[in-house]
């Protein structure tokens, strides 16, 4: 239902005549973007009354639904507020001493124009039509059911080719999957080898479970095969952890030749490989995963948290065979009886109906646009994926930069958060997906760029 407030003057309404200029994205989003830009420029001021929806629809030659959806989006962004019969007004800025902008959390960006509320409502309605509510609210077998395995196999097909559904395990997130892999295929006291810079969740899980991470030296192509083989022989290694495509945090991608060398070492040493591959779909011309090269040697992990939404808490593991599948499910049940049936069913529905691919296409497009924004702001080249790795100038150390950024209201991840043993980098990871929109990201990166250019060592030498 819409509530039109008293008629505005012709001057007041005509000020909105440019709100529907040609551009990209749905018209309702362009209307919300216009309001956001006008507020930022001071054209629209807090407390100013917004035209009636019907009047605006007539002025802009759009239907009333478009204006209503545009106002809903603007309200979601905190740009406008309804005051009952008085009408709708430009909202006052939220009172915050310092707005913290998160450039440290690696999540997929929300695409412009994607109505997640509508997708969730429609998706859950379809899930409830296809499934009994009582069934969704009870216990399920760990690792997912056959429909979930089939959906997982379909999601993994671009990376791995055809996958037998019986090889797929559904996990409540990648962290749970990693813990289950450690439990299933190692013993307390075992060594797990990995590159010196890696996803912090792995060493955390290993430490909690009584295992140790041994860092392996790298070169320009990734983990060195000779160093890997030496470590495998010395420590009787059972698990090798790799994140070979758009690696977190460095964004490096291991070339196909090196992948083949790593597989051969693993085969000679009798070690399994965990291929944690959440970003493969973002990469341009990515090499085939190690699991496609040697499926009998590799446990392949892909999570929807980095491609669709962390809220789904769904990750898919492709295991080499039925025996490995059974061991993994047994290990998973020791700490996570099952993935949440409701969100798990939604993920399955979205994949089977093609909705997941549509969402990801929008996420990927938004990620590329944010990479371009970052490249322009930081004077670097645009990459792929949802984060970038920025090597710091000599006068900044990673920890100091992170603290200084925090005082400016920015959260970044220093290289020290990812390092295991070997001192390898003085850099920060900048994540591009957690900010509310492109404008906020652009402003945050400009602030970060100014901070990076501030040579405090030179300032300290000035004598007054």
TrEMBL record:
GO terms for molecular function: histidinol-phosphate transaminase activity. It comes from the Bacteria. Its EC number is 2.6.1.9. It holds the Pfam family Aminotran_1_2. SUPFAM superfamilies: PLP-dependent transferases (SSF53383), Winged helix' DNA-binding domain (SSF46785). Keywords: Aminotransferase, DNA-binding, Pyridoxal phosphate, Transcription, Transcription regulation, Transferase. InterPro entries: Aminotransferase_I/II_large, HTH_trans_reg/aminotransferase, PyrdxlP-dep_Trfase, PyrdxlP-dep_Trfase_major, Tscrpt_reg_HTH_GntR, WH-like_DNA-bd_sf, WH_DNA-bd_sf. The keyword Chloroplast does not apply. Gene3D superfamilies: Type I PLP-dependent aspartate aminotransferase-like (Major domain), Winged helix-like DNA-binding domain superfamily/Winged helix DNA-binding domain. The keyword Cell membrane does not apply. Residues 25-93 form the HTH gntR-type domain. It is an enzyme of class 2 (transferase). In the C-terminal section; belongs to the class-I pyridoxal-phosphate-dependent aminotransferase family. This is Histidinol-phosphate aminotransferase. It comes from Paraburkholderia hiiakae.
